[in-house]
Amino acid sequence: MSTRVAVVTGANKGIGLAMVRALCKQFDGDVYLTARNEERGKKAVEDLEKEGLHPKFLQLDITSQESIEVIKKTLVEHYGALDVLINNAGIHYSQANDPTPIGIQAHNTITTNFTGTRNICQELFPILRPQSRVVHISSEVCELSFKGMSKDLQMKLTSPALTEHELAKIMENFVHTVEQDIYKAAGYPSPVTSGFYFSQAYGVSKIGVSLLAELQAKCIMKKGILINSCCPGWTRTDLGGNRAPQSPDEATETPMYLALLPPKSDGPHGKMFRNKTIYNWHS
Ligand SMILES: NC(=O)c1ccc[n+]([C@@H]2O[C@H](COP(=O)([O-])OP(=O)(O)OC[C@H]3O[C@@H](n4cnc5c(N)ncnc54)[C@H](OP(=O)(O)O)[C@@H]3O)[C@@H](O)[C@H]2O)c1
């Protein structure tokens, strides 16, 4: 039987690195730690080697189509397929007083968190083996951001007729409206500031990521492939800050549950999870 293979994006640190550690211990196959920066990625692999673990490394910037194509070529050459894909790479402008203009924040956040995730799926889904597992790392902030949207936009996003193409257009339109500072009038949410600060772009991008899993699941209803999204919970990382209650290793519990759903499981598929439980964030 051919070797099974798992890929984690944005895995040189934080929750991504912890998920590579967990997969090295629990997944029966090769595990690729990928990172946009080769030096940082190789250093992370060396650190895991010191723990007695043996991930492989590939450079991957999810905003670069060329980089995504190189990954696909490597997987096809060495394995002929892909068994587990964890879309973890993400960014957040987490300071309310960040001097970066909000139009640039919106562009960069949607380009990475939503479009990068979508692009890697479009490239790698054709090589998913039967019984593959795909997990998008989202955030529960999508519920608060969704509640901050106009009813019209909420209806569009949750319409059973919504397509992936239309979702991408809504994400693109969000960036344009932020650039023109008309996003509130267009029905998009403001930053979430209850307890924490989440930029409007982060919340909207994570709505996109969670809905992407729902829409992809509707299109891929074969071969036992299961696609889901989850919130890993507030976690002590560069993105989450040092006040968070859990470590990156603890944050892997729900993503690992979804990535390692036993063979022949007929679900969950197209759902969002939190604490290993389905999270109905837009109902
Ligand atoms: N921490 C939390 O409390 C929390 C809560 C809910 C959801 N999440 C989600 O969990 C995921 C991981 O977050 P984290 O807390 O571990 O953050 P983190 O420590 O900041 O790590 C983010 C990772 O994503 C990588 N990345 C960013 N842009 C990339 C790109 N274009 N291509 C490839 N990799 C890229 C970063 O690489 P560099 O090192 O090169 O920047 C880094 O490895 C994110 O999707 C985040 O939204 C986190």
Supply Rg. 18 Å
Which regions are unreliable across 5 or more consecutive residues at pLDDT < 50? none
Helical proportion, percent range? 40-55%
CATH topological fold name of the domain at 5-95 and 116-141 and 205-278: Rossmann fold
Shape: globular
Family: Belongs to the short-chain dehydrogenases/reductases (SDR) family.
Protein name: carbonyl reductase (NADPH)
Enzyme class: oxidoreductase
Keywords: NADP, Oxidoreductase
What do these coordinates show?
This protein is an alpha/beta fold. It has a domain at 5-95 and 116-141 and 205-278: NAD(P)-binding Rossmann-like Domain (Rossmann fold, 3-Layer(aba) Sandwich), CATH 3.40.50. It contains ten helices and eight strands. It has helices at residues 14-26, 38-50, 65-78, 102-124, 141-147, 151-158, 164-179, 200-219, 248-251, 253-259; strands at residues 5-8, 30-35, 56-59, 82-87, 128-137, 226-231, 272-274, 277-278. The protein has an eight-stranded mixed beta sheet with strand order 3-2-1-4-5-6-7-8, sandwiched between helices. The structure holds NADP nicotinamide-adenine-dinucleotide phosphate. The site of NADP nicotinamide-adenine-dinucleotide phosphate has 33 residues, from helix 1 and helix 4. Belongs to the short-chain dehydrogenases/reductases (SDR) family.
